[in-house]
Amino acid sequence: MDFLRYYAARIEAEFSNDTHRPLGPVLCISPWNFPLAIFTGQISAALAAGNVVLAKPAEQTNLIAAYGVSVLHRAGVPAAAVQLLPGQGETVGAALVASPAIRGVMFTGSTEVAKLIAATLAKRLDPTGRPVPLIAETGGQNALIVDSSALTEQVVYDVLSSAFDSAGQRCSALRVLCVQEDCADRTLTMLRGALQELRVGRPDLLSTDIGPVIDAQAQSVIEKHVAAMQTSGHPVARRELEAEQTRHGTFVAPTLIEITDVGELEREVFGPVLHVLRYQREDLDRVIDEINGRGYGLTFGVHTRLDETVHHVTDRIRAGNIYVNRNIVGATVGVQPFGGEGLSGTGPKAGGPLYLHRLLASGPTDLPLAGVGDSTAALELPGPTGESNLYRLKPRGVVLCQAATPAGARAQRDACRRSGNSMLCMDSASARTLYQFADAGPTPDWVAADEVATADYQAVLFEGDGDDLLHLTQHVADRAGPIVPVVARRSDELAAGAVYPLEMLVREVSVCINTAAAGGNATLMMVG
Fold this sequence. Notes:
Blueprint: H1 2-14, E1 21-22, E2 26-29, H2 37-48, E3 53-56, H3 62-74, E4 82-84, H4 89-98, E5 104-108, H5 111-121, E6 134-137, E7 143-146, H6 152-164, E8 176-180, H7 181-197, H8 216-231, E9 236-238, H9 243-247, E10 255-259, E11 273-279, H10 284-293, E12 299-303, H11 307-316, E13 321-324, E14 360-362, E15 379-381, E16 387-395, E17 398-402, H12 406-419, E18 422-426, H13 429-436, E19 445-447, E20 459-463, H14 466-477, E21 486-489, H15 491-495, E22 506-514
Parallel strand pairs: 2-3, 2-5, 3-4, 5-6, 7-8, 7-12, 8-11, 10-11, 12-13, 13-22, 17-18, 17-20, 18-19, 20-21
Antiparallel strand pairs: 1-14, 9-10, 15-16, 16-22
Helix pairs in contact: 1-2, 6-7
């Protein structure tokens, strides 16, 4: 309901002129772990932008998806506007992604599948000669840093909910707890004790804390990981399961595993398993670099009563949703827009002001906030008393630009200037001439055409014909690492005054601060 109301409010507030045009049929591929919320969020956004929807739920949760669609139909949404297509991802999902009728794809799931979808979409353009948009949210290796000033009781309470609610089957769930050595023994002693108090069992009972994981395959993958960590000598603490739970259900015991390096975790373990890392205070920046170095960027948390540490950590970490002195799961629509960067997704963030822009063929080109990259520029979003919710925009970094006309070069320099990004252009005499006479903007860096494959860039702006664009989109999709968006415009559009939209040139950061955190007045900690 929050998604439905939020996007309805956005179209009433923003879609007031005649320039907005939908994409066309949009494919929504939703996951099993939020089988109604994410499913409805995708559909409602696509509908709000004026598109018709082909809804492909995860094969494990077809029934709740069917019920959700029936509610929409009974509420008055035309049957032809939202059509349910259940089935296996490898067959139904893959066929839909490859269909030339699809004008946009929304996907929540694994990074590997998102890359496959991006590669398939890169093989074709839409009827206007543009790449088919993909909005992907793909989970992460989410971390929480705790320093010695944090209140241990509050830390343990928030860690339990972050790591073990929903049996750890949230994309935002806590996977790595980083505890300062000075307080690690006390924190881990209390955490191990709390672990033994958790009730594992049927989730329809109010007394249950942790239910089963989704299926036997998931259970097997998690158990193999725990066994491998035990075999390699990592300290492991588990809440033992009762015999009945091991016989009747795909339960996994909540587990703590101590590690010495974030790099020991090759991929996300999607279940009730928490990895714990001890760190020395002087190594805080190294820990942050290790977290950033994994390439994910979905959720992150910090527990501290030092304002200086809050500012330092939140400024250096690369994550879409940052939580201070609270748990790191749960994102209220319109209050904490949700989504990540890097290997955690493409953006824009669901339940945020830029989401609908990506679902339009034409529409607004401005950003909801000036001063991209300015740490003092922020929107304060509504929230409950005792909580601060700030929304900021930061540059993606480097934008690969390829122009064919002076108008295209001007439009690309203007887009990079407005979004705070630096430019990287393919080196040639003609390209240097184009950008030399473009209006003021970032001074381009240059890269040889045969070095583009190994160059580092986070977005692409393109002007040119369809054959060159198809070659570029496939080349970009084949790169290792995160999905890189390609934004293209035709020369005739740019000559007529069109500009590049900016939503894919920025990364959105939501910072949620528990201003009523237990432990007293934080400013007293700074005295002396």
